[in-house]
Amino acid sequence: QVQLVESGGGLVQAGGSLRLSCAASGSSFSIGTMGWYRQAPGKEREFVATITSYGSASYADSVKGRFTISRDNTKNTVYLQMNSLKPEDTAMYYCAARKPLRAKNDYWGQGTQVTVSS
Predict the structure, then answer these.
(1) Backbone phi, then psi, for 59, in 5-degree steps?
(2) Mind listing the pLDDT tens digit for each residue in 44-56?
(3) Residues 82-92: pLDDT tens digits?
(4) Quick one: 98 exposed, middle or buried, by C-beta within 10 A (0-12, 13-18, 19+)?
(5) Residues linked to residue 23 through DSSP beta bridges, in sequence order
(6) 57 exposure class (CB count in 10 Å sphere: 0-12, 13-18, 19+)
(7) How many Å apart are CA 27 and CA 16, to the nearest integer?
(8) CA dihedral 114, 37, 111, 103 (to 10 degrees)
(9) Of 3, 72, 71, which is closest to residue 36 (Cα–Cα)?
């Protein structure tokens, strides 16, 4: 079993930056692609970014050019560097991980709140 713990959320002004971290523990050899998702109040959870175990990244159009996902396989940790934040980025951000070769997420973290003030 894999446990995911997010950190790094907080309150920031529009235009500011935050860096989220997600550390995986447990059966880390069971982890393939990792990613970030977010859910704003009254909205469905949406894809933000994913990164494969080889470092290939994908982004939602809404965050391209502003967010960067990375991972450190030696630490079983994935990061989300968020720059030029906008009020519409306000949401609970969740870390997710998949078992190798899986297309769906198998593990989820508890989430970390990001609030961007205008």
Answers:
(1) -135, 150
(2) 999 999 999 999 9
(3) 999 999 999 99
(4) buried
(5) 5, 77
(6) middle
(7) 35
(8) -170
(9) 71
